[in-house]
Design brief:
mainly beta, 9-stranded antiparallel beta sheet, 2 helices, 58% strand, elongated
Length: 131
């Protein structure tokens, strides 16, 4: 499949570091338009819709293929983070108690981080502003 469009995902949340303890609460809504070629979906767009839903995505596909024999689908997902635990820092890497790792940098009053765990669950780069 080809991703046709991914607009910026609105996200909000709070990350609090206290001593060796971190608390993370955040939500993000993600929407993407994808094109599934004939070789993958055989213009069975309803089946493609169901397969995407079974994969945990909220999908809506057109009833039939477009002029290029592709199923046009829009997928939506919500990311919810609500966790707390210990953390350590080594160089520019934060490791939290559940084994997740994040590369980070600080510039002025902003912290930017991205998950680098081998089985990454959190897409994107996050920018936090100190309050």
């Amino acid at each position: 499949a080809q991703i046709a469009d991914i607009p910026a995902a609105p996200a909000s949340g709070v990350v609090t570091f206290t001593g060796s303890w971190v608390e993370r609460q955040a939500t993000a809504a993600i929407t993407a338009d994808i094109l599934v070629p004939f070789a993958c979906g055989y213009c069975l767009c309803g089946v493609v819709d169901g397969a995407l839903d079974s994969a945990g995505l909220d999908a809506v596909c057109g009833a039939s293929c477009n002029g290029n024999n592709e199923c046009e689908c829009t997928i939506q997902a919500e990311l919810v983070i609500d966790e707390a635990g210990s953390y350590t820092v080594d160089g520019n890497t934060i490791t939290i108690g559940n084994g997740q790792t994040f590369d980070y940098c600080v510039s002025g009053n902003q912290l930017r981080y991205v998950e680098t765990t081998a089985t990454s669950q959190e897409p994107g780069v996050y920018t936090l502003t100190r309050q």
